[in-house]
Write a structure and sequence with these properties.
Layout: E1 3-4, H1 8-11, H2 20-34, H3 43-59, H4 62-69, E2 80-81, E3 101-102, E4 107-108, H5 111-117, E5 146-152, H6 154-159, E6 161-172, E7 178-189, E8 198-201, E9 217-223, E10 229-232, E11 235-242, H7 244-249, E12 251-255, E13 262-266, E14 275-278, E15 292-298, H8 306-318, H9 323-326
Parallel strand pairs: 5-9, 11-15
Antiparallel strand pairs: 1-2, 3-4, 6-7, 8-9, 10-11, 12-13, 14-15
């Protein structure tokens, strides 16, 4: 029988003198690239995955590799191969019609493998080198981890509490085909959670294959813009409008915070743009908790009465303050 020769070294992109460690690294790299779980509905990737698994199954076993290397110079050419006279593969088991099958529908070994190595592949072996944890016949596979964005109002990020989140999840339907369905979960939001934080929900990711455990779900927090407060790291910034006389003479004013209004003393002589601090009023917890910064914004009246205009004119004449010289 003449079958198409398979160059296992070329399939794994290694030299014929490659060490076991080099073979293992090359296999892991290519298996990750072509694994059917990562390439759904891709027949070419599935074919490549089967070929590299077959190549590694032979080359990782010293006796199989020695037998393969003994086939002669034809290994270099990829041409049709006829086993040499007296070639004996019986020690590798008796051939079973149809060859071994991968669980999960990955198909069997090639004619070349069956011609050379004959017997049925022993699926009971422990394939520690398989980067997906199951070798040729993976009994189980853990589901993929999933990341979902979750936008929170600033108030909810500050106070925490229970919230419901809904998102689209790909599942396998009764007909065995993938489909999307809505999944809703109750999520406990830690008080003071920061922008960009992730919440891990164990076992709420994609379902496992062949009874394997589900992956994890990660909620990536995005804090929504707020009409009053701006985020700077863990701290909040609030722009406080002050009348010119409040900034000059000082004042007591009420300032909003996420924990409720507080009374704040404005020192006399406060300049526009100056920042005052309310400690512990930002996001975070404990030593990591931010502050609320009060940025003073001096506001001036747009319209004046005759009396007001006269008083401002009188102040301008009497004042010794020269802002472009005294700053």
């Amino acid at each position: 029988m003449s079958v198409s020769f398979k160059d296992y070294y070329q399939l794994l992109d290694v030299s014929k003198t490659a060490s076991q460690d080099e073979l293992s690294k090359a296999y892991k790299k290519m298996a990750r690239k072509y694994h059917p779980d990562l390439n759904p509905d891709n027949a070419e990737a599935e074919k490549k995955f089967k070929e590299i698994n077959e190549a590694y199954e032979v080359l990782k076993d010293p006796e199989k590799r020695r037998l393969y290397d003994s086939l002669g110079p034809n290994w270099q050419h990829g041409q049709n191969f006829q086993p040499p006279p007296g070639f004996d593969s019986s020690r590798f088991g008796s051939y079973t019609s149809g060859g071994p099958q991968f669980e999960g529908g990955f198909g069997g070994f090639s004619d070349f493998f069956e011609t050379i190595f004959g017997g049925q592949f022993r699926g009971e072996q422990d394939f520690q080198d398989d980067p997906f944890g199951g070798g040729f016949r993976p009994r189980q596979a853990r589901g993929r981890d999933v990341e979902v964005g979750m936008e929170l109002p600033l108030e909810d990020a500050f106070s925490g509490g229970s919230r419901t989140i809904s998102f689209q999840e790909q599942v396998v339907g009764p007909d065995g085909m993938p489909r999307m369905e809505t999944k809703s979960l109750q999520v406990n939001i830690p008080a003071g959670i920061k922008n960009g934080s992730r919440i891990r929900l164990a076992g709420q990711g994609s379902p496992g294959m062949r009874g394997g455990p589900s992956g994890d779900l990660y909620l990536k927090i995005k804090i929504a813009p707020h009409p009053k407060f701006k985020l700077e790291g863990n701290s909040l910034v609030y722009d406080l409008p002050l009348a010119p006389w409040e900034a000059v003479l000082g004042a007591k004013v009420r300032v909003p915070t996420l924990a409720g209004d507080v009374e704040m003393t404005i020192p006399a002589g406060t300049s526009s743009g100056q920042k005052l601090r309310l400690r512990g009023k930002g996001l975070g917890k404990g030593a990591d908790q931010g502050d609320q910064l009060i940025r003073v914004m001096i506001a001036v009246p747009k319209t004046l009465t005759e009396e007001e205009r006269a008083l401002w004119s009188q102040l301008a004449q009497a004042s010794t303050f020269h802002p472009r010289h005294d700053a």
